[in-house]
């Protein structure tokens, strides 16, 4: 099953397969299935044509994939342009929501800066 150029995994349950689309998470996938009255345990290969079309029509009504990515990127660019604090944090690739940076924040900064041991040399025993 393909929706907006994205092929959904055929052997996963439809509620998890829908999350392969950027902009659809678990809660929105369940909401889509409730509105279209499709069982969450069904696999995409077992859906009827009518069910597929109903899901496709509802998914296309949301802002997903390219449009959503463009909107998020423009929001971040706007923050950088007005030189807000959050924009400067985005520009420096640091956490924007107040987390500490002395330790942790590996996801934003990357896994590069790892400290090794205590920084002191161990004395040799004779």
Write the layout of secondary structure elements.
Elements (H helix, E strand, L loop, with lengths): L1 E2 L2 E2 L6 H4 L8 H11 L12 H12 L4 H17 L3 H7 L14 H4 L17
Antiparallel strand pairs: 1-2
Helix pairs in contact: 4-5
What does this structure look like?
This protein is mainly alpha-helical. The chain has two domains: 2-62, Orthogonal Bundle (Helicase, Ruva Protein, domain 3); 66-94 and 102-109, no CATH class. It contains six helices and two strands; from the N terminus they run E-E-H-H-H-H-H-H. It has helices spanning 14-17, 26-36, 49-60, 65-81, 85-91, 106-109; strands spanning 2-3, 6-7. A two-stranded antiparallel ribbon has the order 1-2. Strand 1 (2-3) and strand 2 (6-7) form a beta hairpin.
């Amino acid at each position: 099953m393909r929706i907006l150029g994205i092929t959904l995994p055929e052997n996963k349950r439809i509620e998890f397969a829908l999350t392969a689309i950027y902009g659809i998470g678990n809660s929105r996938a369940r909401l889509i299935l409730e509105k279209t009255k499709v069982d969450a345990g069904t696999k995409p290969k077992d859906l009827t044509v009518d069910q597929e079309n109903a899901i496709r029509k509802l998914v296309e009504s949301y802002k997903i994939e390219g449009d959503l990515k463009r909107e998020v990127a423009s929001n971040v660019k706007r923050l950088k342009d007005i030189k807000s604090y959050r924009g400067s944090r985005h520009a420096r690739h640091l956490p924007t929501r107040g987390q500490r940076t002395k330790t942790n924040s590996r996801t934003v900064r990357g896994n590069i800066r790892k400290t090794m041991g205590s920084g002191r040399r161990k004395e040799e025993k004779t």
